[in-house]
Design brief:
single chain, alpha/beta, 5-stranded parallel sheet, 5-stranded mixed sheet, 16 helices, globular
Length: about 425
């Protein structure tokens, strides 16, 4: 079984919750259902699971009065074996977006506080209009993602002690010995082509066959396309599909700012904006916004009409380029504009799964461009991503600006420090 850090979050919620249900958001097939089922098995005496897509007739249990006693009566009509043991039962509403009234009922489960309730949904963000009354104050929302790079390292057998030793190189800025560096870059390239979707990782662990990995990823990409066809508003279905399929082409351009003209000649935000938002709300992609200035707080300087789009899982992106892209990355022979965009998406994958908002900085009237900007001690922290060795002209420029204390360059390089510029290999970004 894959070790996931989200298990610790579930345990923390159980120990600290008070009159609240847990709502787990995230894209399809990232492991939400499996991890919640496993958590229930190990922490509760009884488990009641309702999947509203597999068993749509159970939506009827939430019609009418939403008192806990009445809902239990109606649930047991459909699930006679369900046991509701006070304070020892986890109720799991899976694919809750398919039953808006179940979402409304969370307030009453939370106020009663006799049973623990966890919900999950892959399309919560795109189905919010159907909910008649949100349980404000009675649900804790949390996003879950596919495996991050550290979880991938756990899966392939690296020990926590070894990973902790890598972290000391990050915090203390100590150079890594060459053999370890080469091995970690190999693991990083494997993560790029496999990604973090649990079904894909399990196939990789079981077979070591990249062809089977590609097939599994293609099935997931097709499932996303099927979701678009099934759930997106009729006016946005074709647009959302075309926006999704354009992402690999968007990232092969020197200017990786999302361009509607790549989706369709003369395409505009007015035409495609809602379709892009659908992909974001379904957890398939993440937005990275341009900043008008490198100033704290970053949110105050967001330019909402200028953004980049990155795939939520790096492995799915690589699969969309086709199988030959896997070979090029694994053999480290990839060149050209595509390489830069792919490594940017790698960094976005790492940062997004660390729950970091994504920002970049690019001035229209100059060549200064910083791929990602974080904050550290209430100061902007510029991060330059270099897919190939070369000068960091933009980073050198902004490091001389007032208010910028230091910055990072991540690339296929070792740890180093040059004034207030810190150089790191890509794989250490997991410790940012």
């Amino acid at each position: 079984m894959l070790k996931r850090r989200f298990t610790d979050y579930l345990k923390q919620w159980k120990a600290t919750k008070k009159n609240e249900c847990l709502l787990v958001r995230g894209a399809r097939q990232i492991g939400k259902t499996f991890i919640i089922e496993d958590f229930a098995k190990n922490n509760y005496e009884s488990f009641v699971e309702i999947n509203f897509e597999q068993n749509p007739e159970l939506k009827n249990a939430f019609d009418g009065e939403l008192s806990v006693s009445e809902m239990i009566k109606r649930i047991t009509v459909h699930i006679p074996s369900a046991r509701f043991i006070p304070h020892k039962t986890l109720i799991f509403f899976d694919e809750i977006h398919a039953c808006p009234q179940a979402r409304t009922s969370l307030k009453f489960w939370a106020l009663d506080n006799t049973f623990d309730v966890v919900c999950s949904g892959s399309l919560l963000g795109v189905n919010y209009k159907a909910v008649s009354s949100f349980p404000v104050g009675y649900e804790r929302q949390v996003n879950m993602y596919s495996l991050d790079f550290e979880e991938f390292l756990w899966a392939v057998g690296l020990s926590q002690d070894f990973i902790d030793s890598l972290k000391t190189h990050f915090t203390d800025k100590i150079k890594i010995d060459e053999s370890t560096h080469k091995k970690m870059m190999q693991y990083l390239r494997e993560y790029m082509v496999v990604g973090g979707m649990p079904a894909v990782v399990n196939q990789f662990l079981a077979t070591s066959n990249y062809g089977i990995v590609q097939q599994e990823q293609e099935k997931i990409v097709q499932a996303y396309l099927n979701d678009i066809a099934k759930y997106a508003d009729s006016a946005d279905r074709v647009k959302a599909r075309n926006c999704f399929l354009s992402i690999p082409r968007q990232l092969t351009k020197e200017n990786t700012k999302f361009q509607y003209s790549v989706v369709e000649r003369n395409g505009t935000a007015r035409k495609f904006g809602n379709a892009l938002d659908w992909l974001r709300d379904a957890g398939i992609v993440s937005y990275c916004y341009n900043l008008s200035a490198l100033q704290f707080p970053l949110l105050s300087y967001v330019k909402e009409d200028q953004f980049r789009i990155y795939m939520g899982d790096i492995g799915l992106l690589i699969s969309m380029y086709g199988y030959e892209m896997k070979a090029a990355l694994l053999e480290d022979v990839l060149a050209g504009p595509a390489k830069g965009g792919i490594f940017e998406n790698l960094m976005a994958d790492i940062l997004h799964k660390k729950r970091r908002p994504l920002y970049f900085f690019k001035k229209d009237d100059s060549s200064v461009e910083i791929e990602f900007v974080l904050t550290s001690d209430a100061h902007p922290l510029p991060i330059e991503v270099k897919a190939k060795n070369g000068r960091t002209q933009s980073l050198n420029t902004v490091l001389a600006w007032e208010g910028i204390e230091n910055g990072y360059k991540f690339g296929n390089c070792n740890v180093g420090v040059d004034g207030n510029k810190i150089t790191m290999p890509f794989y250490l970004a997991m410790f940012l």
